[in-house]
Specification:
Elements: H1 2-18, H2 21-59, H3 64-79, H4 90-113, H5 118-122, H6 124-159, H7 163-170, H8 180-186
Length: 202
């Protein structure tokens, strides 16, 4: 009886492996791990924003529009509950992605404004924060790239035969991914060229 049970378990294990069940499990876990890293890096960026805004405000307090845009973008990012379930909801994921893109755009404008203020550019705290921000943007790009690859591998498994039958049986569905357009935007970290002149009227 015991040998028979062991044989059944072995056959079951082999069948699950052959139909993609184990691959679905491992790729799903990889997505969760990759998503956590994406969130960590986005949070790291959000944590830099208040100090960066305060330093810029000290030298350029009348740049209210840009400062407000950054503050509002950070608030929008913070208002989104980035739970693990978010990566299973296409609309929620798109909303998250849009908010982060707006944050990237607002920060780029804020750094561009600093070109008008030599004293701000020379401020050691500002330069340190700008370097931290650039490094964080690079980490975000790396984390997003890993997430994108993890989702691609998982989605291929969900859609491919015979693993698609296993996915259907166990409720595995494709997950949304970062768009190509947004990936191009995020792959370029905002930088400040301290030697470049700023066009008049900007």
């Amino acid at each position: 009886m015991r040998n028979w049970l062991l044989s059944v378990m072995l056959l079951l294990s082999m069948s699950l492996s052959g139909c993609g069940y184990n691959t679905l499990q491992s790729t799903d876990e990889q997505i969760k791990a990759s998503w956590s890293e994406v969130l960590n890096q986005y949070q790291r960026r959000a944590d830099l924003v208040p100090n960066l805004v305060n330093v810029v405000k000290g030298y350029a307090s009348h740049e209210k529009e840009v400062l407000t845009q950054v503050t509002q973008a950070r608030a929008q990012v913070g208002s989104i509950q980035a739970t693990p379930e978010l990566i299973n909801d296409e609309q929620a994921f798109a909303k998250f992605q849009k908010a982060q893109a707006q944050m990237t755009s607002a920060l780029s404008r804020l750094l561009a404004v600093s070109e008008r203020y030599p004293q701000l550019k020379a401020d050691g705290v500002f330069r340190d924060l700008q370097a931290q921000l650039e490094g964080t943007e690079n980490r975000i790009a790396v984390a997003r790239n890993r997430y994108i690859k993890a989702v691609q591998e998982y989605n291929v498994t969900v859609r491919s035969f015979p693993s698609n039958l296993t996915a259907l049986a166990f409720g595995y569905k494709t997950k949304p991914n970062f768009s190509v357009e947004n990936e191009k935007e995020i792959s370029t970290a905002p930088k400040v060229d301290f030697s470049a002149p700023v066009p008049a009227g900007r």
